[in-house]
Amino acid sequence: MTRARNRFLQFNTVPYPLWRRRLPALLAPLAQAVFSRTLAADADRNPPASAQAVARYMGRWGLLNGRDERDTAAALLTKPATVETVIPERTPVVAPAAPVRLPAQWEPMETILLAWPVVYPALWEQHAQMAEAIAPVAPVTICVPTSQWAQAVAVYLQTRGRMALERARFLHLPTDDIWVRDFGPLVGLDASGEQVCVKATYDPLPNFPQTRDNAMARHWAAHEELPVKPLDLHIEGGNIWSDGAGTILTAEHVYEANPGLTADMLRDKLHEAFGTRKLIVTPSLWREETGHVDLLVKMADAQTLLVSAPTVAFNGGRLRAAADVLRRETNAAGQPYRVLELPTPPLYVNWLVWPVWRSYTNALTVNGRVLVPVFGVETDAEALRVYAEAMPQHEIIPIDCAAGANGGGAVHCLTKEIPARGR
Q1: Is residue 222 part of a domain?
Q2: How far is CA 242 from CA 100, 114, 128, 146, in A?
Q3: Alpha-carbon distance 205 to 137, whole Å?
Q4: Does some domain include residue 50?
Q5: Three-state SS for 222?
Q6: Stronger pLDDT, 249 or 207, i.e. the higher one
Q7: Residue 344 in contact with residue 317, Cβ under 8 Å?
Q8: Residues with Cβ < 8 Å from 268, sequence gap 6 or more?
Q9: CA-based nearest residue to 98, from 222, 185, 187, 191
Q10: Using an 8 Å Cβ cutoff, are 199 and 221 in contact?
Q11: DSSP readout, 119-157?
């Protein structure tokens, strides 16, 4: 398995809705037909019509966990999940203009959001691992495209038997895709410790539909009865690290997403939104589609940064430059950083087209635990050792992200934390 996962040329499921890519009118129906036969295309918008049909779907894609289809259909009919429907017509309250503090991940978290990969059966296992690792320390909020899929996910988790289902909250909140880190709510705390949703613009993929993703944070905030503060910036959550004390890390991709934006203008926008006092901008990886900082660096604490080591030939120079920037910098309090290197797995190419970067920095800290991506390769053990050294007060939990990496991310990209109310 390790050898297969290190092959330079691979043919793995691509967790992007390729069948919805904008194509010439004559090709679009053909693409839809091909993908619906080979993938679970359109299962989010047109779910199976009965419990038996859902069970057949789960059986087709190997999601029964040893149960047969008849028993699964019976379990689905019991409706093990309570589902809340997010009403898109609700308009959230506009927050006051004052900045909000964007807490660090090592601060207390109220819940973690996941967008369940209904149309990507290969990722159900990874999402289950994340939910099971989060549930003991924080409730998990699972967004699903229809209420039928909430029941399917609940049964799937039940049959795995590794988490208490009452730790999962299901929201009927359709999205275009699963990368909730990037389009999900940026939740900060105001001066009294109350939650405020900061809403930036999400539109990084011009050839794919993004309307529902872009609206997700606003719809979620209205459902949670939280005020929304608009942020006039095209940026994704994967390109923001905050230490909760005035420092934000981002990568230079933000300038590509906002033509004409200068460093001073970016600093002013982030200061207005979050009270940012120190902005650090690293290089982005070359030929890596997201351009996000969470593929380069992980904030372990206010003075400790984990970076991807420049040990690979392709992009090694950019990784080295990013680490050099961080070694020269200080946080907003003027404290220098301790920079520790994580191993960097080798690049591979998926379907002759997509270069895939696997990064151990794409991890989530939540209430005393760190969910670290692993990929079934030789460097996994060393990455876990570095995390244990850097974050000795945390429980380090490996999550198999070999499937999710083909979409350009891992644990961090597929989760979104909601900070607890407080200071």
Answers
A1: yes
A2: 12, 20, 27, 33
A3: 34
A4: no
A5: helix
A6: 249
A7: no
A8: none
A9: 191
A10: yes
A11: T-GGGHHHHHHHHHHHTTTS-EEEEESSHHHHHHHHHHH
* Domain membership flag for residue 272: yes
Sheet holding 364-366, edge to edge: 364-366, 369-374, 395-400
Has residue 10 been placed in a domain?
Answer: no
Return the amino acid letter for 6.
Answer: N
Residue whose entry in the numeric block shows the structure tokens 């993908």: 35
Question: d(Cα 310, Cα 322) in Å, to the nearest integer?
Answer: 9
CATH number at residue 263: 3.75.10.10
**Domain coverage including residue 155:** 109-281+403-419
Which residues face 114 on adjacent strands?
A: 142
Which amino acid belongs to residue 336? P
DSSP letter assigned to residue 249: E
What tokens appear for 278 in the block? Answer: 């120190």
Question: How close are the terminal C-alpha atoms of the chain, in Å?
Answer: 47
The residue to which tokens 């946080």 are assigned: 331
Rounded CA separation 338/382 (Å): 18
Domains of the chain: total: 1
Query: What are the tens digits of pLDDT across the range 270-306?
Result: 999 999 999 999 999 988 889 999 999 999 999 999 9
Q: Tell me the per-residue pLDDT of 328-356, one tens digit each, with 9 for 90 and over.
A: 999 999 999 999 999 999 999 998 888 99
Closest Cα to residue 51, out of 27, 37, 72? 72
